[in-house]
Design brief:
Blueprint: E1 2-7, H1 12-28, E2 32-37, H2 40-45, E3 53-56, E4 59-63, H3 69-77
Helix pairs in contact: 1-3
Length: 79
Amino acid sequence: MKNIKVLGTGCASCKTTVEMINHLAEEKGVTIELEKVEDLQQIMAYGVMSTPAVVLDGAVVHTGGIPTYEKVEQWLAAE
């Protein structure tokens, strides 16, 4: 199971990112644990200055905008 966190303060791009990851995980049959982190101190603890950001299994893999479908598919496919 992949642990994914979307870091952001609740903007439309953050919400879209959460929805996209959920949708693609369901479509691909990948089990994920998805958490939305809106607390600014927690976001800054990752060193993120631009949101939305995505943390995959503890590592920041994306910052500053909605990721592409292809990028999300790569994260879900990676072992």
